[in-house]
Amino acid sequence: MSKKILVLVSILMVASMVLSACGAPATEAPVVTEAPVMTEAPVVTEAPVVTEAPTAAPIDVKICNVNDMGGVDDKSFNATAWKGVTDAMAKYGVDGVYLESEQQSDYEKNINSYLDGTCDLIVGIGFNINFAIEAAAKVNLDQKFGMIDMAWDPPYPNVAASVYEIDQATYLLGYLAASQTKTGIIGTYVGMLFPSTANFMDGFYMGMMKYNEVHGTDVKLIGWDPAAYTGLEVGDFSDVDKGKTITLGLLDEGADIIMPVAGPVGAGTLAAVKERGALMVGVDTDWSVLYAEDSTFILGSALKRMDFWLENTIGTVVDGSFTGNTFVGTLENTGVAIAVGVDYKDTIDPAILAEIDQLQAEIIAGTLDYKYVR
Protein backbone atom coordinates (compact mmCIF):
# COMPACT_ATOMS: atom_id res chain seq x y z
CA MET A 1 0.00 0.00 0.00
CA SER A 2 1.41 3.45 -0.97
CA LYS A 3 2.28 6.10 1.61
CA LYS A 4 -0.44 8.40 0.22
CA ILE A 5 -3.10 5.76 0.77
CA LEU A 6 -1.85 5.06 4.31
CA VAL A 7 -2.01 8.75 5.14
CA LEU A 8 -5.53 8.98 3.73
CA VAL A 9 -6.69 5.97 5.78
CA SER A 10 -5.17 7.48 8.92
CA ILE A 11 -6.96 10.78 8.31
CA LEU A 12 -10.30 8.95 7.86
CA MET A 13 -9.78 6.97 11.06
CA VAL A 14 -9.04 10.11 13.04
CA ALA A 15 -12.10 11.83 11.59
CA SER A 16 -14.27 8.87 12.55
CA MET A 17 -12.98 8.98 16.12
CA VAL A 18 -13.68 12.69 16.37
CA LEU A 19 -17.22 12.29 15.14
CA SER A 20 -17.79 9.44 17.59
CA ALA A 21 -16.49 11.53 20.46
CA CYS A 22 -18.82 14.36 19.52
CA GLY A 23 -21.77 12.02 19.65
CA ALA A 24 -23.65 10.28 16.86
CA PRO A 25 -26.65 12.04 15.36
CA ALA A 26 -29.86 11.33 17.26
CA THR A 27 -32.06 8.67 15.70
CA GLU A 28 -35.55 9.58 14.63
CA ALA A 29 -38.44 8.86 16.99
CA PRO A 30 -40.21 5.58 16.15
CA VAL A 31 -43.23 5.86 13.94
CA VAL A 32 -46.30 5.23 16.09
CA THR A 33 -49.00 3.20 14.42
CA GLU A 34 -52.66 4.06 14.63
CA ALA A 35 -55.16 2.02 16.65
CA PRO A 36 -55.90 -1.29 14.88
CA VAL A 37 -58.51 -1.40 12.17
CA MET A 38 -61.19 -3.50 13.76
CA THR A 39 -61.32 -5.98 10.90
CA GLU A 40 -57.61 -6.79 11.08
CA ALA A 41 -56.32 -9.98 12.64
CA PRO A 42 -55.41 -9.43 16.29
CA VAL A 43 -51.87 -8.46 17.12
CA VAL A 44 -50.46 -10.55 19.93
CA THR A 45 -48.77 -8.36 22.49
CA GLU A 46 -46.34 -9.20 25.24
CA ALA A 47 -46.47 -7.91 28.79
CA PRO A 48 -45.54 -4.23 28.94
CA VAL A 49 -42.16 -2.92 29.92
CA VAL A 50 -43.33 -0.24 32.32
CA THR A 51 -40.06 1.65 32.42
CA GLU A 52 -40.11 2.73 28.76
CA ALA A 53 -40.25 6.49 28.28
CA PRO A 54 -42.85 8.04 25.98
CA THR A 55 -41.65 8.77 22.47
CA ALA A 56 -44.19 11.50 21.69
CA ALA A 57 -43.67 15.04 22.95
CA PRO A 58 -45.09 15.28 26.49
CA ILE A 59 -48.51 16.88 26.88
CA ASP A 60 -50.37 17.93 30.00
CA VAL A 61 -52.71 14.91 30.24
CA LYS A 62 -52.45 12.44 33.11
CA ILE A 63 -53.90 8.92 33.12
CA CYS A 64 -54.33 7.25 36.51
CA ASN A 65 -54.89 3.48 36.73
CA VAL A 66 -56.19 1.73 39.82
CA ASN A 67 -55.10 -1.88 39.44
CA ASP A 68 -56.89 -4.95 40.64
CA MET A 69 -55.07 -7.37 42.90
CA GLY A 70 -52.16 -9.14 41.27
CA GLY A 71 -49.92 -6.21 40.41
CA VAL A 72 -49.08 -4.26 37.28
CA ASP A 73 -46.52 -6.86 36.26
CA ASP A 74 -48.89 -9.82 36.61
CA LYS A 75 -48.25 -10.84 32.97
CA SER A 76 -52.00 -10.96 32.50
CA PHE A 77 -54.95 -8.69 33.25
CA ASN A 78 -53.34 -5.69 34.94
CA ALA A 79 -50.31 -5.84 32.66
CA THR A 80 -52.48 -5.81 29.53
CA ALA A 81 -54.40 -2.78 30.78
CA TRP A 82 -51.20 -0.96 31.74
CA LYS A 83 -49.84 -1.61 28.26
CA GLY A 84 -52.77 0.45 26.95
CA VAL A 85 -51.46 3.36 29.03
CA THR A 86 -47.82 2.94 28.01
CA ASP A 87 -48.85 2.71 24.36
CA ALA A 88 -50.78 5.97 24.78
CA MET A 89 -47.75 7.53 26.45
CA ALA A 90 -45.72 6.71 23.35
CA LYS A 91 -48.45 7.73 20.91
CA TYR A 92 -49.79 10.90 22.51
CA GLY A 93 -47.19 11.95 25.09
CA VAL A 94 -49.55 11.61 28.06
CA ASP A 95 -48.31 10.89 31.56
CA GLY A 96 -49.32 7.58 33.11
CA VAL A 97 -49.34 6.43 36.74
CA TYR A 98 -50.89 3.55 38.65
CA LEU A 99 -51.75 2.45 42.16
CA GLU A 100 -51.74 -1.18 43.27
CA SER A 101 -54.64 -2.77 45.14
CA GLU A 102 -53.67 -5.50 47.56
CA GLN A 103 -57.11 -5.92 49.13
CA GLN A 104 -60.73 -4.94 48.47
CA SER A 105 -60.57 -1.89 50.73
CA ASP A 106 -57.80 -0.42 48.58
CA TYR A 107 -60.11 0.29 45.62
CA GLU A 108 -62.00 3.19 47.17
CA LYS A 109 -58.89 4.51 48.92
CA ASN A 110 -56.86 4.51 45.70
CA ILE A 111 -59.62 6.17 43.66
CA ASN A 112 -60.10 8.84 46.30
CA SER A 113 -56.39 9.62 46.29
CA TYR A 114 -56.71 10.48 42.59
CA LEU A 115 -59.67 12.83 43.08
CA ASP A 116 -57.45 15.87 43.54
CA GLY A 117 -57.97 17.33 40.08
CA THR A 118 -54.65 16.14 38.65
CA CYS A 119 -55.96 13.07 36.80
CA ASP A 120 -57.61 13.61 33.42
CA LEU A 121 -58.81 9.99 33.38
CA ILE A 122 -59.12 7.55 36.30
CA VAL A 123 -59.32 3.94 35.13
CA GLY A 124 -60.61 1.03 37.20
CA ILE A 125 -59.15 -2.34 36.22
CA GLY A 126 -61.42 -5.34 36.75
CA PHE A 127 -64.92 -6.21 37.85
CA ASN A 128 -64.06 -6.02 41.56
CA ILE A 129 -63.52 -2.27 41.39
CA ASN A 130 -66.75 -1.34 39.63
CA PHE A 131 -68.64 -0.38 42.79
CA ALA A 132 -65.96 2.10 43.82
CA ILE A 133 -65.78 3.58 40.30
CA GLU A 134 -69.57 3.95 40.15
CA ALA A 135 -69.72 5.63 43.56
CA ALA A 136 -66.97 8.09 42.62
CA ALA A 137 -68.45 8.84 39.20
CA LYS A 138 -71.85 9.71 40.67
CA VAL A 139 -70.50 12.48 42.86
CA ASN A 140 -67.58 13.69 40.73
CA LEU A 141 -69.37 14.56 37.51
CA ASP A 142 -66.50 16.66 36.16
CA GLN A 143 -64.02 13.80 36.50
CA LYS A 144 -63.58 11.37 33.58
CA PHE A 145 -63.43 7.66 34.39
CA GLY A 146 -62.68 4.45 32.52
CA MET A 147 -63.90 1.03 33.58
CA ILE A 148 -62.78 -2.42 32.41
CA ASP A 149 -65.12 -5.41 32.80
CA MET A 150 -68.25 -3.57 33.84
CA ALA A 151 -70.76 -1.30 32.11
CA TRP A 152 -73.97 0.43 33.10
CA ASP A 153 -77.22 0.92 31.20
CA PRO A 154 -77.59 3.74 30.52
CA PRO A 155 -73.92 4.73 30.63
CA TYR A 156 -72.79 7.39 33.05
CA PRO A 157 -71.91 10.54 31.07
CA ASN A 158 -68.43 10.67 32.61
CA VAL A 159 -67.55 6.95 32.35
CA ALA A 160 -66.18 5.13 29.30
CA ALA A 161 -66.75 1.46 30.05
CA SER A 162 -65.69 -1.75 28.35
CA VAL A 163 -66.94 -5.31 28.54
CA TYR A 164 -65.80 -8.30 26.53
CA GLU A 165 -67.63 -11.23 24.97
CA ILE A 166 -64.71 -13.43 25.91
CA ASP A 167 -66.90 -16.53 25.70
CA GLN A 168 -66.75 -16.10 21.93
CA ALA A 169 -63.00 -16.70 22.08
CA THR A 170 -63.05 -19.44 24.70
CA TYR A 171 -65.80 -21.24 22.74
CA LEU A 172 -63.25 -21.68 19.94
CA LEU A 173 -60.58 -22.75 22.44
CA GLY A 174 -62.95 -25.23 24.09
CA TYR A 175 -63.49 -26.76 20.65
CA LEU A 176 -59.73 -26.84 20.09
CA ALA A 177 -59.02 -28.37 23.51
CA ALA A 178 -61.67 -31.04 22.97
CA SER A 179 -60.00 -31.94 19.69
CA GLN A 180 -56.56 -32.31 21.31
CA THR A 181 -57.28 -34.05 24.62
CA LYS A 182 -55.96 -37.59 24.84
CA THR A 183 -57.84 -38.47 28.04
CA GLY A 184 -61.25 -37.11 27.04
CA ILE A 185 -61.21 -34.71 30.02
CA ILE A 186 -60.34 -31.02 30.08
CA GLY A 187 -60.32 -28.78 33.15
CA THR A 188 -60.66 -25.20 34.32
CA TYR A 189 -60.74 -23.13 37.49
CA VAL A 190 -61.14 -19.47 38.43
CA GLY A 191 -59.27 -16.97 40.59
CA MET A 192 -62.43 -15.26 41.80
CA LEU A 193 -65.90 -15.98 40.49
CA PHE A 194 -67.95 -13.16 39.01
CA PRO A 195 -69.71 -12.72 35.66
CA SER A 196 -66.68 -11.71 33.63
CA THR A 197 -64.62 -14.69 34.80
CA ALA A 198 -67.52 -17.14 34.54
CA ASN A 199 -67.83 -16.04 30.92
CA PHE A 200 -64.43 -17.58 30.14
CA MET A 201 -65.48 -20.96 31.50
CA ASP A 202 -68.97 -20.91 29.98
CA GLY A 203 -67.50 -20.44 26.52
CA PHE A 204 -64.92 -23.18 27.12
CA TYR A 205 -67.72 -25.57 28.07
CA MET A 206 -69.92 -24.63 25.13
CA GLY A 207 -67.08 -25.07 22.64
CA MET A 208 -66.31 -28.51 24.04
CA MET A 209 -69.98 -29.47 23.71
CA LYS A 210 -70.00 -28.31 20.10
CA TYR A 211 -67.00 -30.52 19.36
CA ASN A 212 -68.82 -33.48 20.94
CA GLU A 213 -71.85 -32.75 18.79
CA VAL A 214 -69.88 -32.49 15.55
CA HIS A 215 -67.51 -35.42 16.13
CA GLY A 216 -69.66 -37.79 18.20
CA THR A 217 -67.28 -37.71 21.16
CA ASP A 218 -67.89 -37.44 24.90
CA VAL A 219 -65.22 -35.05 26.13
CA LYS A 220 -65.97 -33.80 29.64
CA LEU A 221 -65.11 -30.59 31.53
CA ILE A 222 -64.17 -30.67 35.19
CA GLY A 223 -63.64 -27.73 37.54
CA TRP A 224 -66.72 -25.81 36.40
CA ASP A 225 -70.44 -26.65 36.43
CA PRO A 226 -72.18 -23.98 34.33
CA ALA A 227 -75.69 -25.06 35.32
CA ALA A 228 -74.94 -24.83 39.04
CA TYR A 229 -72.66 -21.80 38.54
CA THR A 230 -70.06 -23.35 40.80
CA GLY A 231 -66.51 -24.55 40.36
CA LEU A 232 -62.99 -24.57 41.67
CA GLU A 233 -61.97 -21.14 42.96
CA VAL A 234 -58.66 -19.84 44.29
CA GLY A 235 -60.22 -16.90 46.13
CA ASP A 236 -57.79 -14.32 44.77
CA PHE A 237 -55.53 -13.54 41.84
CA SER A 238 -52.19 -13.89 43.58
CA ASP A 239 -51.85 -17.35 45.17
CA VAL A 240 -49.72 -19.10 42.54
CA ASP A 241 -49.09 -22.09 44.81
CA LYS A 242 -52.82 -22.71 45.18
CA GLY A 243 -53.19 -22.48 41.41
CA LYS A 244 -50.61 -25.22 41.06
CA THR A 245 -52.32 -27.34 43.71
CA ILE A 246 -55.71 -27.01 42.02
CA THR A 247 -54.17 -27.88 38.66
CA LEU A 248 -52.46 -30.97 40.03
CA GLY A 249 -55.83 -32.06 41.42
CA LEU A 250 -57.46 -31.64 38.01
CA LEU A 251 -54.65 -33.61 36.38
CA ASP A 252 -55.08 -36.35 39.01
CA GLU A 253 -58.74 -36.56 37.98
CA GLY A 254 -57.70 -37.24 34.40
CA ALA A 255 -57.70 -33.83 32.75
CA ASP A 256 -54.80 -33.18 30.38
CA ILE A 257 -55.60 -29.63 29.21
CA ILE A 258 -56.30 -26.92 31.81
CA MET A 259 -57.54 -23.34 31.40
CA PRO A 260 -56.83 -21.21 34.50
CA VAL A 261 -59.02 -18.08 34.59
CA ALA A 262 -56.91 -16.54 37.28
CA GLY A 263 -54.45 -14.01 35.92
CA PRO A 264 -50.95 -14.48 37.38
CA VAL A 265 -52.14 -17.53 39.35
CA GLY A 266 -52.02 -19.31 36.00
CA ALA A 267 -48.23 -19.47 36.43
CA GLY A 268 -48.96 -22.21 38.96
CA THR A 269 -50.84 -24.12 36.27
CA LEU A 270 -47.91 -23.74 33.90
CA ALA A 271 -45.58 -25.19 36.53
CA ALA A 272 -47.93 -28.13 37.08
CA VAL A 273 -48.43 -29.02 33.41
CA LYS A 274 -44.66 -28.85 32.89
CA GLU A 275 -44.21 -31.40 35.67
CA ARG A 276 -46.87 -33.72 34.27
CA GLY A 277 -46.36 -33.21 30.54
CA ALA A 278 -49.86 -31.79 30.07
CA LEU A 279 -51.12 -28.64 28.28
CA MET A 280 -52.75 -25.38 29.32
CA VAL A 281 -54.79 -22.59 27.74
CA GLY A 282 -53.78 -19.03 28.63
CA VAL A 283 -56.04 -16.03 29.15
CA ASP A 284 -55.90 -12.27 28.50
CA THR A 285 -52.68 -12.37 26.44
CA ASP A 286 -50.78 -14.92 24.34
CA TRP A 287 -49.05 -17.08 26.92
CA SER A 288 -47.04 -18.96 24.29
CA VAL A 289 -45.30 -15.66 23.49
CA LEU A 290 -45.22 -14.38 27.05
CA TYR A 291 -43.70 -17.64 28.31
CA ALA A 292 -41.77 -18.43 25.15
CA GLU A 293 -39.38 -20.77 26.94
CA ASP A 294 -42.35 -22.97 27.91
CA SER A 295 -44.43 -22.55 24.75
CA THR A 296 -44.57 -26.28 24.14
CA PHE A 297 -46.99 -26.57 27.09
CA ILE A 298 -49.39 -23.85 25.87
CA LEU A 299 -52.02 -24.98 23.37
CA GLY A 300 -53.59 -21.55 22.86
CA SER A 301 -54.81 -18.38 24.56
CA ALA A 302 -57.95 -16.25 24.79
CA LEU A 303 -57.00 -12.65 24.09
CA LYS A 304 -58.84 -9.86 25.87
CA ARG A 305 -57.60 -6.73 24.10
CA MET A 306 -58.07 -4.20 26.86
CA ASP A 307 -54.88 -2.41 25.87
CA PHE A 308 -56.27 -1.27 22.51
CA TRP A 309 -59.54 -0.11 24.06
CA LEU A 310 -57.72 1.88 26.73
CA GLU A 311 -55.25 3.41 24.26
CA ASN A 312 -58.13 4.53 22.05
CA THR A 313 -60.12 5.86 25.04
CA ILE A 314 -57.11 7.90 26.13
CA GLY A 315 -57.04 9.28 22.58
CA THR A 316 -60.55 10.68 23.09
CA VAL A 317 -59.37 12.43 26.26
CA VAL A 318 -56.49 13.95 24.31
CA ASP A 319 -58.59 15.16 21.36
CA GLY A 320 -61.57 16.29 23.50
CA SER A 321 -64.09 13.78 22.12
CA PHE A 322 -64.44 11.73 25.34
CA THR A 323 -67.98 10.79 26.25
CA GLY A 324 -69.73 8.29 28.47
CA ASN A 325 -70.13 5.07 26.48
CA THR A 326 -69.86 1.30 26.47
CA PHE A 327 -67.49 -0.69 24.29
CA VAL A 328 -68.28 -4.38 23.78
CA GLY A 329 -65.27 -6.37 22.63
CA THR A 330 -66.15 -9.17 20.19
CA LEU A 331 -64.52 -11.40 17.60
CA GLU A 332 -65.98 -9.14 14.94
CA ASN A 333 -64.28 -5.96 16.17
CA THR A 334 -61.22 -7.92 17.46
CA GLY A 335 -61.85 -6.79 21.02
CA VAL A 336 -61.45 -10.50 21.77
CA ALA A 337 -59.53 -13.09 19.78
CA ILE A 338 -57.72 -16.41 20.02
CA ALA A 339 -54.07 -17.23 19.51
CA VAL A 340 -53.10 -20.81 18.78
CA GLY A 341 -49.86 -21.61 20.59
CA VAL A 342 -46.75 -20.92 18.55
CA ASP A 343 -45.69 -24.58 18.77
CA TYR A 344 -49.07 -25.83 17.55
CA LYS A 345 -49.96 -23.58 14.62
CA ASP A 346 -48.34 -25.99 12.18
CA THR A 347 -49.00 -29.27 13.98
CA ILE A 348 -52.76 -29.25 14.58
CA ASP A 349 -54.79 -30.99 11.92
CA PRO A 350 -55.64 -28.33 9.31
CA ALA A 351 -59.17 -29.72 9.16
CA ILE A 352 -59.69 -28.82 12.84
CA LEU A 353 -58.34 -25.32 12.29
CA ALA A 354 -60.67 -24.94 9.32
CA GLU A 355 -63.62 -25.97 11.51
CA ILE A 356 -62.59 -23.37 14.09
CA ASP A 357 -62.34 -20.71 11.38
CA GLN A 358 -65.85 -21.63 10.25
CA LEU A 359 -67.20 -21.45 13.80
CA GLN A 360 -65.64 -18.01 14.19
CA ALA A 361 -67.29 -16.87 10.97
CA GLU A 362 -70.66 -18.16 12.23
CA ILE A 363 -70.28 -16.39 15.57
CA ILE A 364 -69.47 -13.15 13.78
CA ALA A 365 -72.41 -13.64 11.42
CA GLY A 366 -74.73 -14.25 14.38
CA THR A 367 -75.76 -17.70 13.15
CA LEU A 368 -74.14 -19.77 15.92
CA ASP A 369 -75.63 -20.02 19.39
CA TYR A 370 -72.39 -19.90 21.40
CA LYS A 371 -73.62 -18.44 24.70
CA TYR A 372 -74.54 -20.48 27.77
CA VAL A 373 -77.93 -19.35 29.04
CA ARG A 374 -78.94 -20.06 32.64
Structural summary, described in words:
By secondary structure, this protein is α/β, with parallel strands linked by helices. 40% of the residues lie in helices and 18% in strands. It folds into two domains: 62-165 and 306-329, Response regulator (Rossmann fold, 3-Layer(aba) Sandwich); 166-305 and 335-365, Response regulator (Rossmann fold). The protein contains eleven helices and 14 strands. Strand 1, helix 2 (77-92) and strand 2 (95-99) form a beta-alpha-beta unit. Helix 2 (77-92) packs parallel to helix 10 and helix 5 packs antiparallel against helix 11 (350-365).
What's the layout of helices and strands?
Blueprint: H1 3-22, E1 62-66, H2 77-92, E2 95-99, H3 106-114, E3 121-125, H4 130-139, E4 145-148, E5 159-164, H5 166-180, E6 185-190, H6 195-215, E7 220-222, E8 224-225, E9 230-231, H7 240-252, E10 257-261, H8 266-276, E11 279-284, H9 287-290, E12 298-304, H10 306-319, E13 325-329, E14 336-340, H11 350-365
Parallel strand pairs: 1-2, 1-3, 3-4, 4-5, 5-13, 6-7, 6-10, 10-11, 11-12
Antiparallel strand pairs: 8-9, 12-14
Helix pairs in contact: 2-10, 5-6, 5-11, 7-8
